[in-house]
């Protein structure tokens, strides 16, 4: 009997049973090399013999019960702990008992004689099993142990991020997803869309203010689509607090440039701000687009009035432009109105000289001038000039707007 038990113990030590018994542990491959005979204490050897009889007879439930009875027997010799753990694994896999399977894996990983490769494989399965039964703390410990050995496993990084989301550890979620994304991008690919979206949400929910803008920009850079731009820009706008109409115009122009006007509110907010700031052509253009896309209904009370105002004031604005140009040399504020008027008429080549003439002008917000100059230069095809103008926008909401334009500029 002892020789049979020793032979079976050798099989267990080699990991063969784990590779055969269940596909869930198929990665625990058999060892081809010769394995040294296991060293077992007498009490453990006696238990091994009894358990293996039950397993040979197909009584895996009985084998697991016997192993449970023997849990307090001291593991004094070199291979006691690993053999007992692998016996449990063999039966647990066979009858698909995930609770006992996880117990066996946990015991095997803790065994002093387990080989590094097998320990790593088992740790990976512990992470998944613990996560499935919502023991997220244990799952994270297993993910952490695994990632210390294989830090660049993208799939495990993402799974670990999911576990940390369940633990409400937002900073760690961001850290893990950022690493997964960076690894993918370094390989010339991009992560899954959900990684960018989930990371953005974690940054905002976790109040990680210094990471918000880089994360949003990374998202739209990877997925330069209306949906991602709209969400990222709206989040940026909301975080900026109460904004005046001049700033709302710049946000509206950004949404328009990104083709990210996806809601009625996008159109109406932009149009009303433009009307308030004396840019009716811009307001009328925006409203007509929203009507054509059936996102706004001109027959509704209030909306129809805005549409009529835009049309009427647009005609007045065009008629008065020549007079404003004459006065532009006497007042930087009038020069800014002229530049903005040319820009909202789509005549960016005429707007550029006026914006450039306002660089360094007293009483004129330089971030506003540089942002709008950058947009006008981008529209005329001067990418280098536009980049320099955007880089000159230093603070506040317009700084964030300029960063989005940098992304748009890169693909223009």
Number of strands: 0
The share of residues in helices is over 70%
The oligomeric state is single chain
CA(first)-CA(last) distance: 78 Å
Query: What is the average of the pLDDT values?
Result: 88
CATH architecture of the largest domain: Alpha Horseshoe
CATH top level assignment of the largest domain: Mainly Alpha
Structural class: mainly alpha
Low-confidence stretches: 1-30
Main β-sheet description: none
Q: How would you describe the shape?
A: elongated
Question: How large is the share of residues in beta strands?
Answer: under 5%
Number of helices: 22
CATH fold-level assignment of the largest domain? Serine Threonine Protein Phosphatase 5, Tetratricopeptide repeat
Give the C-alpha Rg: 33 Å
Task: Describe the fold and architecture.
The protein has 412 residues and is mainly α. It has two domains: 2-129, no CATH class; 224-411, Alpha Horseshoe (Serine Threonine Protein Phosphatase 5, Tetratricopeptide repeat), CATH 1.25.40. Helix content is 73%, strand content 0%. The protein contains 22 helices and no strands. The protein has helices at 2-14, 16-21, 42-56, 60-69, 80-94, 98-110, 116-132, 136-149, 154-166, 170-186, 193-205, 209-222, 226-239, 245-257, 264-276, 280-292, 303-328, 332-344, 348-357, 366-380, 383-391, 396-411. Helix 3 (42-56) packs antiparallel against helix 4 (60-69) and helix 6 (98-110) packs antiparallel against helix 7 (116-132). The longest helix is centred in the last third of the chain and has 26 residues, at 303-328.
């Amino acid at each position: 009997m002892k020789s049979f038990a020793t032979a079976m113990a050798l099989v267990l030590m080699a990991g063969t049973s784990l590779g055969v018994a269940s596909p869930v542990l198929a990665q625990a491959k058999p060892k081809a090399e010769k394995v040294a005979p296991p060293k077992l204490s007498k009490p453990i050897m006696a238990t091994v013999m009894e358990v293996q009889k039950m397993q040979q007879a197909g009584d895996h439930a009985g084998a697991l019960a016997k192993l449970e009875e023997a849990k307090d027997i001291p593991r004094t010799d070199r291979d006691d702990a690993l053999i007992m753990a692998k016996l449990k694994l063999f039966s647990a896999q066979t009858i698909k008992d995930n609770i006992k399977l996880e117990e066996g894996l946990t015991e095997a990983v803790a065994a002093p004689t387990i080989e590094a490769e097998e320990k790593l494989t088992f740790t990976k399965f512990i992470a998944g099993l613990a996560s499935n039964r919502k023991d997220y703390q244990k799952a994270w410990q297993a993910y952490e142990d695994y990632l210390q050995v294989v830090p660049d496993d993208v799939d495990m990084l993402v799974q670990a991020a999911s576990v940390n989301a369940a633990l409400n550890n937002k900073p760690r979620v961001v850290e893990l997803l950022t690493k997964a994304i960076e690894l993918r991008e370094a390989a010339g690919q991009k992560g899954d869309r959900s990684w960018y979206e989930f990371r953005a949400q974690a940054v905002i929910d976790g109040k990680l203010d210094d990471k918000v803008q880089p994360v949003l920009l990374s998202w739209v850079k990877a997925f330069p689509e209306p949906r991602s731009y709209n969400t990222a820009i709206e989040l940026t706008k909301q975080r900026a607090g109460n904004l005046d109409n001049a700033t709302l115009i710049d946000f509206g122009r950004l949404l328009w440039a990104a083709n990210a006007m996806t809601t009625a509110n996008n159109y109406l907010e932009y149009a009303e701000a433009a009307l308030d700031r004396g840019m009716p052509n811009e307001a009328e253009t925006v409203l007509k687009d929203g009507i054509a896309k059936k996102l706004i209904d001109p027959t509704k009370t209030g909306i129809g009035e805005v549409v009529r105002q835009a049309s009427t004031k647009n005609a007045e604005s065009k008629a008065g432009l020549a007079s404003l140009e004459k006065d532009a040399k006497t007042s930087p504020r009038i020069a800014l109105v002229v530049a903005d008027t040319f820009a909202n008429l789509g005549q960016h080549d005429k707007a550029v000289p006026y914006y450039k003439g306002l660089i360094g002008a007293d009483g004129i917000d330089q971030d506003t001038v540089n942002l709008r100059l950058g947009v006008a230069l981008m529209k005329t095809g001067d990418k280098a000039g536009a980049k320099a103008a955007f880089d000159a926008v230093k603070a506040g909401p317009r700084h964030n707007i300029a960063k989005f334009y940098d992304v748009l500029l890169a693909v223009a």
